[in-house]
């Protein structure tokens, strides 16, 4: 066996050198071929060393990704980025998702909606920009009123403060939740005592509300105006998943 | 009239130098790098003509020794996302702490919402509105797209964020993932960031000027955001880029005055790589090498960290036995003596000094005598 | 760098082999040096990836963080590192000698000290950052670490700081030390590549040294190609063995180079001043150990006003002494001063050993020596001179011109009416005189830190490491 | 530019009791010493003891002489180190006592010493201090003596050379108390509210030089000449022989500036031809019997009124060896700081260089060399400096938290060169 291992190691070294030489010469095609060979050699090496094929164990998944995101968004109560949703899910629901798995989620939802409109009790959908296009990297729930799903200039901040309040007001707080709250609180004036100790949730919520009051009027106005436009100009699908471009709006209006 | 004609010729000559190779677009980093070795005619011509130096060096068999680790790239992306997360919550905190931004100022515009093709126009509109409306304008502009004319070509530039409403002035925000530890960062990394940010400042000032606003509404202090100490937490510092701006202006002026260099070139000279349909260069390597060697390089060891052509030029310097190989300081110390054998010949007396070399010859002979005496 | 070194570089380039620029070794080489080759994760300030270290060239220890983004693994690595380095460092504390001091209590000085050798200047920088990232951690509280970690952090900080101290050999950077003794035929910038520099010194230049596939970089930065093609897939595979083996391939070549370089330096005889500088290193090391033993807090993040001024004064003093000692120890270094006219050497052609000045009781012996030299002397009459041949003596330049220099010996002649035998150079002896002298002038006292004046911000707040220091996130 | 010099001085004196520290920026020859003497007398008149700090023994002796000349009734104690031999002119002054210890001085109105000497003094606090040449004083020196006084007036020229060290001080960069920064920078970073005054008029630099130096080295603050065009004249008694050297001297006599340009060539630092040219110019200047007339009257330009300046010590040695009349001062920029002459001859720091280093480009170096003269400055340089500046790579590292220093050396060099090119011979 050790002969075999030596051979493999030699082969792996050669292949690695080959790949790196090819990469330095920016010869992508050749590098790809060599890389594939290299991976299989490496797998063989792993198998020999550990005596078995490394099978990555998937943790038992009780709740679907979709449902975990839903839970997270419901808790937050405002449009949020995948990173925050994942953090909330991990902190409060023992969630297991990683933000990379959320990238295709919105498209899947849209496909599902198009094939069977309103076939599900909720959809994970887009937040809408002032052009009524989908806002990059923000998720919302179809069950929310349009005002909550549109983003005016102040909305990102308002949503962040809303989320912070929601996190602060959770009853159960373990270490992970504390860390999440601290991270948010540090970006809200007056929410922490300036140290790294877990912040007082009441104080965080109070501080967030105080700042929220500064923005509330204008943001509410902006959102109402946007929501009105969205309701008037967008069809069902676009209202949930955003209008792709200006031309889409025209087309949808025409039909 | 003749000026116009010359300008046309000039552009035409540069096109010819590039040949069928696609124009290499300048990004902020490339523009900032123009100042790395302005005395190098080879580089000035390649940059001016928009030749892809990296591709040329590879084709010549001298690929540049630069590469970025995937770990560093990931780290950079993750950090930028963190700074911009949740409506730029971290950025707002820092601007409030560092520049006294008021709590009410939080309006966020993602310029990219309009789609890639409209980004530049939308940036113009938003910046125009901000400069005009003053206090009612937005605070943060994410993913803006600016432009700058470089030697007759438009370069598109993507600053990380433009912040407004800090004392009524625009600030360029530059997000970098090198660490600031106890208030200090790697000075060469900061310098590179400052040079890059200066390009954005200039582009934004140019835009304001075009729109009829005061270009000085763009601050020469840029906001540099980096991770603090060993954590991911961002920290902002103000960096004064006035010096970098002055250097940049000088270099851009030089770019438009390549005439002298162009005039010295043979009519038929071209750096064309003759790419095939897949973009692979087909020009015989020796031919390309010869073409490049007809321009004068000014190799210095610093090129090894700043120029794609460095290994090619180093090889050339080796073949010529140029004392440039040993660094600018050695070269300077040797006065006018450029070649290694010449210097050694003067040192051991096998070569008589030419006119004007008496001095360095005396010094070298003295040095040679001392070395001989001490090592005997 | 002087023209003398430039000439050596030109010669090296021409002959294809590095040229000596020193005739003796100017750094201390420990009997049992600790070679330390650390690697860090690209893109991070100080995330350790691996280190190869040890005092036995045949048995290096390899410590690896198989998943560098996992802070627990990083702290475990730090604890492992402490497990190797701390016993080595503390092993030197047991044997001490008592040193008497004027106007101060005697103190205990270690008879030998640790020497941690890293490949290059970037390695020293990384050690300093590692020290910074560890020394404030605590064994209790929310992010507890093994007790050895903050202790190691303080020692690494100390070694990293001491490396910047001119003439110290507690933490030499190998490329720097080699570069002080040999001139290669490449630029100083390229000399920072250990493999390349060693090739110049031993076999002649080789482009292999720049090929990371043949000679991986000596760290702490890894080759981006290796990161992309080997390390990243290995980490993704989740196999610690594979990561370990991958990193071993990057460290082993450098490990070999480091010992080769040590052998090269060991082949040179130590200069006369090396022992006294090492003695200072030992004193400094013992001071640091005592500091820790007394329970003093870790080094602050940055120097306060008074500490900075004090350190600057010490460093300037050390730099001046180091420059002078190297010139006195090594004729090839002295030659640089001869070239610029600040020193001259030659043969004694005339003497007046009995020359005196003054009358009666103030009559003093001031022997005159005339030297014939080929060196371009650029010293003014009255310049005070020293000589490597008779270090206790001081002299004064009387006149110089036409290749003849007249010198008057003014110090170190004793009280006798005639010169002691050998005190005055004989006709025909070769001598060297230089205006470079190591005359120590004590530096005036600084205020206590608590008495920092208003011009410098007033008394600083007393530094107490707080929870924030200890809990500082490690991303 | 605000106020007359007199008004500025009055403002400074009025500010003294109001602030713990007062800073006065003084461009070349703007009456810094006059201000120090005035302020000294002003403080002494209150009856409170005063200490004065200068940087070199020559500066101390010079101040002692000036104070005694202007205010003969003041008593002055001159503290010095053991090996110091006071010049005769000092010993002859009636109110002056020299000693190595404060106790030896009696109880004078004013005690004056170098910063190095003051650092060894302790156990007493003066209510007032004047720190002269404070921009050339390293902040660690100030740290050693700041405990000796309660209030201080800091006077100096921000445009000259910064203090330096033989060791690398990067570890302290960005700290507000960086020991390598000048005393004034550190003082102002900790006490940003202290008043900073500027002397607006150079009495030394003629009308031909003040605008050039002001534009290149003091671009934001600026200053003007105290004399107008035509107030200063330099005449050469004997005729020239039409050589480039003679023509350069004639151009300098006529316009206040001359650039003697040698053929473009990369040379060693001690460029024989350039060194020879400098020496020749110095010799010819004396031979031709230059006479300077100014508001101070008419006097011959004797050797002690002429200085030759260069960047490096080996250049200075080479110039000396090339046969400059021995009474003429030949020195590096560092050592010419604070000095004044009628005519200066300068070997341009960038002459014959292939690459400019930070050392060569340091604006303070050129500023010192170009601002020592009352009448004229002759610069010797090889052609090609413009190309060298043009080819200069800019990759200076940037330290966080360190204020950017202006003027930029490149810009300053460019500005001076631009002016010199109009006086090329």
TrEMBL record, chain A:
Protein name as catalogued: Uncharacterized protein
Q: Which organism is it from?
A: Nonomuraea longispora
Q: Mind giving the lineage of the organism this protein is from? A: Bacteria, Bacillati, Actinomycetota, Actinomycetes, Streptosporangiales
UniProtKB/TrEMBL annotation, chain B:
Compositional bias (Basic and acidic residues): 1-16
Chain spans, region Disordered: 1-25
Domain of life, source organism: Bacteria
Q: Report what the protein is called.
A: Secreted protein
Q: What species does this protein belong to?
A: Nonomuraea longispora
TrEMBL record, chain C:
Annotated region (Disordered) at 439-475
Compositional bias (Acidic residues): 464-475
Put simply, this protein is called Uncharacterized protein
UniProtKB/TrEMBL annotation, chain D:
- Quote the protein name from its UniProt record: Helicase
Q: Which domain of life is it from?
A: Bacteria
User: Does Nucleotide-binding show up as a keyword for this record?
Assistant: yes
Q: Name one GO molecular function term.
A: 5'-3' DNA helicase activity
InterPro entries associated with the record: Coronavir_polyprotein_1ab, P-loop_NTPase
PANTHER family tied to this protein = DNA2/NAM7 HELICASE FAMILY MEMBER, HELICASE WITH ZINC FINGER 2
Record keywords, A-Z:
ATP-binding, Helicase, Hydrolase, Nucleotide-binding
